[in-house]
Write a structure and sequence with these properties.
There is one protein chain. It contains three helices and seven strands; from the N terminus they run E-E-E-E-H-E-E-E-H-H. It is globular. By secondary structure, it is α+β, with helices and mostly antiparallel strands. A hairpin with a 2-residue loop joins strand 5 and strand 6. It has a single domain, classed as Nucleoside Triphosphate Pyrophosphohydrolase. 23% of the residues lie in helices and 45% in strands. The structure holds adenosine-5'-triphosphate. The site of adenosine-5'-triphosphate has 15 residues, from strand 4, strand 5 and helix 3.
């Protein structure tokens, strides 16, 4: 089986109406957190910072200590079935402005419950629920 490894972030910012989470609309249609493939020699958090920069233009990012998890899934490519693991961190920014790259169709900042509903995949929703369960949600 083909193996793929990505890393990403549940990225949030504080707004006057509360904490908002960033979701991206992927070309295949789903809504998910910012993430991307780990390049050779990269540490996971380096991947996350690079992907956030490349996919959103956001450069001020701080990781929240104590949260690290992963999401796993399989999907079909022409070359065969892929097993993919995505490591996720919780991270914070002060930037509201997003410059979406050509790799995505759109973005949205949503409060916790709306973001939970917007996420396409159950495993991503479960990841987000852990943020609340572990006490990281304000
Ligand atoms: P990356 O952001 O890591 O570069 P990508 O844009 O190449 O990823 P994915 O978002 O991993 O690709 O999507 C690849 C395939 O897997 C798509 O068909 C997508 O629908 C499916 N997929 C994406 N996320 C999940 C998930 N959390 N659970 C199940 N299937 C998923």
């Amino acid at each position: 089986m083909l193996e793929e490894r990505s890393a990403g972030a549940i990225l949030y910012r504080e707004s006057p109406t509360g904490r908002l989470y960033l979701l991206l609309n992927y070309p295949s249609g789903h809504w998910d957190f910012v993430k991307g493939n780990i390049e050779k020699g990269e540490a996971l958090k380096q991947t996350v910072l690079r992907e956030i920069r490349e996919e959103t233009g956001i450069t001020d990012v701080s990781f929240i200590d104590g949260f690290e998890d992963k999401v796993e899934y399989h999907y079909q490519r022409e070359e065969g079935l892929v097993h993919k693991e995505v490591a996720f961190f919780l991270a914070k920014t002060s930037t509201e402005h997003v410059e979406i790259s050509h790799e995505h169709l759109g973005f949205i900042w949503l409060g916790f419950n709306d973001a939970l509903q917007k996420l396409t995949y159950k495993n991503a929703q479960n990841l987000m629920k852990k943020v609340r369960k572990l006490g990281f949600e304000a």
